[in-house]
Design brief:
This protein is of the alpha/beta class. Helices cover 30% and strands 19% of the residues. It binds threonylcarbamoyladenylate and magnesium ion (MG). Residues 143-144, 152 line the site of magnesium ion.
């Protein structure tokens, strides 16, 4: 079914497109998390993204495009594996890293990709993101709309709280459906997942066969650049610790007058009792709530946040990855 946009939406999108064309920053919803968007062909605009986030210039940004044809436009090659993944998962939470095309009128500027010869391309699955890409007719460089190393925003209010006036405009598309970032797969060499995310390794392997986790040591153009793989990332400000079920008895809901926030694995449905939350046993539902809860805990002046790790099995890889980056092991 083709979706018709109401006139109010198109007016907002036209305004946002003007901001982008003038080199401004627009935060927009995607199915994963909110992005902080800039014209990927405008060096000064992209420089602002790095400045606002406090992001090191060595950490490349993802470029968002409306569809696979637009992705093919900005890539120097379009391998069959890219074609098959795009057919299977786009629009959706998958970023495909390919060699970047430069011999063209308005190429993606090198600052976007931290000078790398490759570019991460993603076609997001959100009607407002699609409208913005179509309405602006620009490739949009957009990292998650948070300060560097902080929790990614999953609502427009999170973006407002975190970036305030540093962003020229925020498009509000409601809470994000996936809730954690896209899977990043590098196809510029042998297929390798650089960041687990919204699409699992198993689903990718069903489409293109075996895929490695992490970088190839021999892969020069990507070896220096897996900032999503820095040990601390996506972290709340409150000290946060992870534990497993055998350590449950070590944790008390109150310590020295202040409360602790706790995410425990629930038996059934999602339940919140103040600072104790029974998390869903379904990884997709868990992911959808995680960043919101970490942000809510972060403004509660808690002693600490304790998070019970979900099972160490393939369905939980992306959630466990985020939890490990957000927490330290329980001190014993
Ligand atoms: O779901 C998402 O991917 C969100 C939404 C807004 O689309 N975006 C996002 O962007 O998470 P960011 O910048 O926070 O994360 C981008 C990740 C980083 O880990 C970065 O290192 C990797 O993608 N990346 C981007 N371009 C790359 C490239 N050319 N080579 C290797 N890794 C790349
Ligand atoms: Mg990010």
């Amino acid at each position: 079914m083709v979706k018709q946009y109401p006139p109010e939406t198109l007016e907002l999108v036209a305004k946002a497109a003007d901001v982008l064309r003038a080199g401004g920053l627009v935060a927009f919803p995607t199915e994963t998390v909110y992005g902080l968007g800039a014209d990927a062909t405008n060096e000064a605009a992209v420089a602002k993204v790095f400045a606002v986030k406090g992001r090191p210039a060595t950490n490349p940004l993802i470029v968002h495009v409306a569809d696979a044809r637009a992705a093919g436009w900005y890539a120097a090659v379009w391998p069959e594996k890219a074609e098959r993944l795009a057919k299977a998962f786009w629009p959706g939470p998958l970023t495909i890293v390919l060699p970047r095309r430069t011999d063209m009128p308005k190429p993606i500027v090198p600052i976007v990709t931290a000078g790398l010869a490759s570019v991460g391309l993603r076609c997001p699955d959100h009607p407002l993101a699609y409208a913005l890409l179509m309405g602006s007719d620009l490739p949009l460089a957009a990292p998650s709309a948070n300060r560097s190393n902080r929790v990614s925003p999953t609502t427009a209010q999170h973006v407002r709280d975190e970036l305030g006036d540093d962003v020229d405009m925020i498009l509000d598309g409601g809470p994000c459906r996936v809730g954690i970032e896209s899977t990043v797969i590098d196809l510029s060499g042998p297929p390798a997942i650089l960041r687990p995310g919204g699409i699992s390794r198993e689903r990718i392997e069903d489409i293109i066969g075996p895929v490695q986790m992490g970088h190839h040591a021999s892969d020069e153009h990507t070896a220096s650049t897996s900032p999503g793989q820095l040990p601390v990332h996506y972290a709340p400000r409150t000290p946060a610790f992870r534990f497993d079920i055998t350590q449950r008895a070590l944790i008390h809901p109150e310590t020295g007058g202040k409360k602790n926030g706790m995410l425990v694995m629930g038996s059934g449905a999602f339940k919140e009792w103040g600072t104790i939350v029974a998390m869903p046993r379904d990884p997709e539902q868990y992911a959808r709530q995680l960043y919101r809860l970490l942000r809510e805990f972060d403004v509660m002046d808690l002693n600490a946040i304790y998070i019970e790790m979900p099972p160490d099995d393939p369905a939980w890889v992306a959630v466990r990855d985020r939890l490990i980056r957000a927490t330290k092991p329980l001190p014993v």
